[in-house]
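[Meeting: bench + compute handoff]

Bench side (C.D.) handed over the final construct sequence. Compute side (W.E.) agreed to return the predicted structure before the next meeting so the bench team could plan truncations. Sequence as handed over:
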Amino acid sequence: MLVMASCGQQKTVSGQAKIPSKAQKLFNEGYNAYQFAEYAKAEDLFKQALRKHPSYVDAWDALAKTYQVQGLKPQAISAYRTVLNYQPGHVFALYELGNLYFNKEQLDSSEYYYSFFVREAGTTDKYTDVAERRLKNIAFSRRAMKEASEIEAINLGSGVNSRLEEYSPALTIDGNTIFFTSRDASLPYQRQNEDIYWAEKKDGEWQQSQTIGPPINTVENEGAFSVSADGRYIFYT
């Protein structure tokens, strides 16, 4: 987004009036605040720029991204859709709307924006790869929902399940040790961290989980744990 916005400072969008200097100055200040993760300040400056020039596409784009990193998904969707009102083929807005609706499990809307994005982008890169893969996932989801079977979800108890997000479990071959990824989604978007935890089952009950610790867990993200049948090897990302 920042690269695209930076490029946008040098030229006006096709069919758009020249950006007033005051709006451009406010946009640049918001851009700098965004770079320093001062999202509330960036949001306010982008809004000021838009009051000076309501059809400023780069400012709407940047505002949408600022909402997105703050977890304000409805506001991000609204801002990206405003981008498309002014520039219907804006590939970044199309891609991010596909992502936002995909994460909300609104498959029809996600499919629409991903498909539109792939047509408009007309390239092969990591973004089109993601969009095309998710379009396949959407098609699979529709088939799977038509053939849905009853699955009972069972809470593993407070030793494993908590207020945090726990996922990607792996069991040892005897079924008595579980490894899983834990993430604290209550933290700000840029500070969320994934770590690997493990717990043992004793007398049919899962005991209190604990971090697998260093050198595996670090300040970066670790997850998607697997363990070999003989227990000698682990694989994770």
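W.E. noted at the follow-up: DSSP finds eight helices and seven strands in the chain. C.D. will use this when planning the next construct.
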